[in-house]
Amino acid sequence: MAELTSFSYRPGISLIHKIDARFKLLFIVIIGLSSLEASPSGVLLLFLFVVYGLARIGISLWQVARDLSFFIFFLAFVFAIRAFSAGGAVFINIFGMSLTYDGLIEGSLVCLRIVLMILLGLLFTSTTRTAEVKAAIDWILRPLPFISGGRVSTMTGLMMRFIPVILEQARETASAQKARSIENRKNPIYRMVKFSVPLIERIFYNAGRISMAMEARCYSDIRTGQKLSSKINDWISLLVIISICIISVLYL
């Protein structure tokens, strides 16, 4: 069984836990769209707001960085692409490529937006039960024709359950490679291949086992889902989120 990771559900009685799952999905959309239009200071305000929410449920940025350490390389790649492709006053030349002040700001802003969305998803998965997520997605997709809300919600619920398992398998694979002194290999592509191939193989193997277990139990997406009902705290939270997003876009 996978250990508790940042993306695992954490039972609690905080206000974030009590908010309706439909409102949480709406919050993600509102904050995500606002971050695209906000200035760097506005994106920083949204980032600090989400970090405060994580702190309220007991998740630290250090724990997130530990669980997503492999993602730092992707952020570094995105930052380098944006930083060296933007024009403006040159800050430094590296191997014939110009790193500009505008590129530093633009690269940092893009990475901050990506991290913001990751933390939003983490906050959502850590405070929302899988049954609530399935019920919310089913409710949202129910009016749409030719789309099976039950099937989509079931797939989403399985994906949320599988994220902590994937993170734990990645951690076990990395530990096994360290035990075999894989870090002594200087070729990063070789290390990446030796890490990704067994990880992907284990992921598909476990996915196949889950699929066979569901078929053996005659699992169907036609099930009685959890009933959702909005409360006054949900609407107050929506008003607060909209106010913060307006401030970050228009006044910062």
- Rg from C-alpha positions? 21 Å
Distance between the termini: 46 Å
Helix count, DSSP H or I runs of 4 or more residues: 10
Overall number of strands: 2
String of helices and strands:
HHHHHEEHHHHH
Instruction: Please list the strands of the largest sheet in the order they lie side by side.
Output: 1-2
Quaternary status of these chains?
single chain
Summed up, the domain count is 1
Q: What does this molecule look like?
A:
By secondary structure, the chain is mainly α. It has one domain. Helix content is 71%, strand content 4%. It is built from 10 helices and 2 strands; from the N terminus they run αααααββααααα. A two-stranded antiparallel ribbon has the order 1-2. The mean pLDDT is 77.
List the helices and strands and how they pair.
Elements: H1 15-18, H2 21-37, H3 40-56, H4 61-67, H5 71-85, E1 90-94, E2 97-100, H6 101-127, H7 130-141, H8 149-179, H9 188-216, H10 232-250
Antiparallel strand pairs: 1-2
Helix pairs in contact: 2-6, 2-10, 3-6, 3-10, 5-6, 7-8, 8-9
Short description:
With 252 residues, the chain is mainly alpha-helical. It is built from 10 helices and 2 strands, in the order αααααββααααα.
